[in-house]
Amino acid sequence: MLLDALQRSEPSNEPYLEASTTGRAHETHSLERLLQAWPLQRRRVCAKQYVFRAGQARHALYLVHAGFFKTAVVSEDGREKITGFRMRGDLLGLDALDMPTYACDVMALDTGELWELPYARLRDELPQFQERVTALLASEIRRDWSWMLTLGTLGADQRVVTFLFDLASRLEQLGFSPNRLQLRMTRAELGNFLSLTLETVTRVLSRLQARGLIGVAGREICIKDRNGLQTVLRDNTAYH
Amino acid sequence: MLLDALQRSEPSNEPYLEASTTGRAHETHSLERLLQAWPLQRRRVCAKQYVFRAGQARHALYLVHAGFFKTAVVSEDGREKITGFRMRGDLLGLDALDMPTYACDVMALDTGELWELPYARLRDELPQFQERVTALLASEIRRDWSWMLTLGTLGADQRVVTFLFDLASRLEQLGFSPNRLQLRMTRAELGNFLSLTLETVTRVLSRLQARGLIGVAGREICIKDRNGLQTVLRDNTAYH
DNA sequence: CGGTCATTTGATAGACATCAACGTAAGTGG
DNA sequence: CCACTTACGTTGATGTCTATCAAATGACCG
Hints:
The structure is a homodimer. Chain A is of the alpha+beta class. Chain A has helices at residues 2-6, 30-34, 119-125, 127-153, 156-173, 187-194, 198-210, 226-234, and strands spanning 41-45, 50-52, 61-66, 69-74, 80-86, 91-92, 105-108, 112-117, 180-182, 214-217, 220-223. The first copy, chain A, has two domains: 7-141, Jelly Rolls (Sandwich), CATH 2.60.120.10; 150-234, Orthogonal Bundle (Arc Repressor Mutant, subunit A). In chain A, strands 1-8-3-6 form a four-stranded antiparallel beta sheet, with no helix packed on it. In chain A, strands 2-7-4-5 form a four-stranded antiparallel beta sheet. Chains A, B: One of its GO terms (molecular function) is DNA-binding transcription factor activity.
């Protein structure tokens, strides 16, 4: 139950414009609707380009309008950890709201468009905005906790499957097909997010494909047997 | 740099009332000062007692005034993950601000006192409160990310050392000695938080003690050689 | 003082990391 | 248009960290 509310991670965007079974314009888009009357600064970014980096002066909040992004934290000694993948409707920079500088790196994984939100003005002039921001902050915490649970208690296969389900669910929310996933990150990035090596990610995907549960063609993955994948989650619950 | 701002996890409370070198009344206590004029409902809890559990109707926010607590999420199939240890100055229930029910379990690890904060009223009547809550939410996210980094990229020894440093730092902020740590959680709980087994935690502590870096007597741990411990962190940076 | 729970330590095994090649795709420049 | 380069992905062999299993000791409590 908690899980349903929490799980999240990944995106794929412009292709696959099929109709979703559940309709469009979900929670994710509510911020966009809220901001329709505002003249927002837009910013285009290309793949591998940083939106901002930890330590830079915080100018604004960014609302993802298109494209895929990764957020990451880095330690002094260079260890990096991808904390999430962001897509349309996600807000970037929230985690530094109380700071003068950004607290994480955000990199575009493909070309995308961002809307620059002037936080202070929106907060003061748009009453629902503050509330929305609070909700987004809280849900980010729950999402993080959910991933901590996943990474801390599940084995490699189950982590990957959890990721695939989460990505599929997010895509579906945006109106895309939940069965054809276009990964925008490398195996290494996926592995980093899941606390696995890139080789392990590859092996898991191959394994799942061999069992007929998914189809893998590079970064294009299709989900063939949802129940089978659910079984993977239920079965060998490694650890603890 | 990021790390310093982020790391956090653990507490120990009433004993060790030594003077801290850095003075008192830090950021952590600012909420208490802010609330001095308010008549707050207080609640006493005993060890092993739940403050609230995930799914229960959300009544209020709780400010920890005394005692130690653990927050945990649980999946449908019973996997549990401790997401943090909370002490004086921490706010409980923040992660569910936008929900009708709590999103995690909170259990007292010893006797403690909580102050019940009526969120809606405080938000409306105390302007600085909203701001404070936002800051706390954001810093919880950064803290979570920092632990994700630690758990995802460091080996067992380094996780435990990171934990000890974090705990020591938090204790110092509260005015206690940063060198004598009274753990309030079992090895199993510590292991759960660090994504290790209780046996591994025990072994690491024994190992560090054998090297003369710390002293271990059950749940009482004293830090003997900070530099030596720093070395552990620098050295064998396992993984990736 | 028996009984439960927490901690410690040892022996063993397994899952995943590491190391090493090789295959594939895409982009560059001659 | 095709070597050449570079980045990414796949697969295999091997190693190791830490989980698992097991047992003994100690602490606390009714």
